[in-house]
Amino acid sequence: MTEGLWEQPTPNPAFYDALQQHAQGLMHQHHVPGAAIALLTPTEERAFTLGVTSAEYPQPLSRDTIGQIGSITKPFTALLILRLAEQGLLNLNAPLRTYLPELQLSDEHATQQATLRHVLTHTGGWRGDVFENTGDGDDALAKMVRLLAEQPQVTPLGAYWSYNNAGFYLAGRVVEVVTGMPFEHAARQWLLKPLGLEHSFFFPAEVMTHHFSVGHVQQNGQTVVARPWSLPRNSAPFAGLACSLNDLLQFARFMLGDGRNAQGERLLSEEGMASLLQPQHETTDGRWVGLTWNVALVNGVQVSSHVGSTGGQTAVLALIPQLGVALASMTNAAAGMEMNRALLEWFCQHVLHDVPQEPVWLTLGQSELVEYEGRYQVPGDRHGFRVTANEGGLIFAFQQGEGREVFAETDPWPPTRLAFHANDRVTVQDGILKGMKFDFLRVEGTVRYLRAFSRITVRQQ
């Protein structure tokens, strides 16, 4: 499959042609108006842009076009926190109350013992998708931290990995307290400026003075512009960064290095750099989480990656430190998440010779399948999932709730079949989610949780 395309240290030109052709096919399949994609190797970087910035007012994308990178902001925040830790301003293992003495969570043990390491490894256990607009003032994060007292503790502190945006309100507020400045200003001074990222912004007013992309969602089968464009200010530590493809590549180049920036200035020790990508906590199916980074062994080689999604814009950044290689993709459609997932799979197949193996599917009887049936939801969340036994397998369906949606509405996914590839672990069998893996978690032998889309939901009684 890969012979003649990928040759170390520089790919054959045919590799880039194949990558671009595959990306174009995925854009068409998933109705993505625009994408900016780049590959970094030890000897060169290649980038190409496809499509337009907006379906309504189309302009060609460029490497300098600003797009939202969503949760890829989290690795930036992790790097910022490690810089502050090495300066002696904070400690990843100290209770958050060391810096936020007023902190109150709904669970007293979490209130007293939760740390930045819990936050950066998504093991805090409290409700993770908490989105409230607390205004545009410098107190936006402080207000949000106070609201976390109302959120339920879904799983015990440190017990499970479950993707958690809300923890980064706490991390961002700690940064503000120890630096004495708003989070965005601290990130600019301690991170973006030293890295030379001149096209990376938190504030929409800054983005609007540059060439930028808008997001798109599917509504009634049509691709439409996602509105509003911006996120609340308090989202800055976990999803608020917008940047150009060039800046995302510059960040990737730093992450593949030894902690020095392009000018040779040391920003982080080599030990600190290694800790960012070092496995910290097991997630699922032999994967791990580093300090925000997803870590997997692909054909014996470590791949560290992170995805991001906002209101209609998605991105992926993948690092292969052993090869000094990085892949970055930024799209302006919610369905770009599926495109990026497929692009990363293709990339690993061609670079790491990772040939997917068809699983040996498990056959369960009806009495076994009913153990998994039920509605799964996080208390306070608007949406949930319904799992039912059907003809020797499981059917997984979204259940939409009432209330206001924070992000632009998009058409829901239709019900899909789940098949067991291991005990309590399933793979989606159809639709655009095909190949995604979920897992059920037991407490004292009884199915208690479903972890889907990296988030733990609770089986309702």
Automatic annotation (TrEMBL):
Protein name, per record: CubicO group peptidase, beta-lactamase class C family
Top-level taxon in the UniProt lineage: Bacteria
One Pfam family it belongs to: Beta-lactamase
The organism of origin for this protein: Deinococcus hopiensis KR-140
SUPFAM superfamilies: beta-lactamase/transpeptidase-like (SSF56601)
Domain (Beta-lactamase-related): residue spans on this chain: 19-338
